Amino acid sequence: MTIALALHGGAGTLRRSDMDSELERAYRAGLERALEAGYAILRAGGSALDAVCASVCALEDDPLFNAGRGSVYNLDGKQEMEAAVMDGSRQDAGSVTGLSRVRNPVLLARAVMEATPHVTLGYAAAEDFAARIGAAMQAPEYFHTDKRWQALLLEKERLANGGADDDIPEDRKHGTVGAAALDAQGRLAAATSTGGRTAKWPGRIGDTPVIGAGTWADAHCAVSGTGHGEYFVRAAAGHEISARVRYLDETLETACDAVVHGQLMRMGGTGGVAAVDRLGRVALPFNCEGMYRASIDGEGRKRVAIYRDELQR
Ligand code: ASP
Questions:
Q1: Which residues carry out catalysis (predicted)?
Q2: What pLDDT, in 10s, does the model give residues 105-118?
Q3: Which CATH architecture has domain 4-306?
């Protein structure tokens, strides 16, 4: 019985020079908590779907990460959260976008998958559905963090001064949380949740809720992405990784590298993925300075890392 779990807390890490040891400990502790939340379910024989939802909920509840509590702000100073789940064993999926009050967007995405005839619901209709099913809601203050508000102010100033995309520090560019898992019954699942990009246009939809872009799972692999969402959508990144595994017979690692370091890089898209295959192999490649990440592979090897110079896989 092989089980495995890989997760990310976003491909936009603080620059090393801006990271102090206390903050770094807090990030690593958040990743550990999320890893344990999901892995405990897998260890007890639970489903990959339950495991990825548990890991993502832990990260959504942690204000350090850009999802749920601690989400970034759009140009209008509002939070519009999005999330997705995919159950690879049934090739079933659910996603939500434009949420501002739902405490755990990933659970609403799961409810869309399980309790509606649709795959994606957005904005007021999604929040109405959340209220109807009794999903936990929170007031805007719950989701607010000064760090994200300051990031919006800096970003607006940069835009007003005609700054180029290259000038943005990565932690202001990126952030998202996600997990991919294999359970003891051989089922794969993926889940992703995000506040999106700082200063995004109101109504902008990123890759996270687009099934096949930022979130994908089938019988071969499960993938959750983080990075510049427009590129992940244009590359159909999650699905592309799976297609390479299926049609080219590539290993998960080779397929992930081809998309993250090959295709996305060629297009100019920064980011990374957390992926697991049906053999319990994990891959966590990224093409930027760092990616908050953690995993336990099918052989029980555990890793928690942030920067590039730490062991990648
Ligand atoms: N992929 C997310 C988005 O574009 C943000 C990120 O992961 O950095 O909305």
A1: 176
A2: 999 999 999 999 99
A3: 4-Layer Sandwich (3.60)
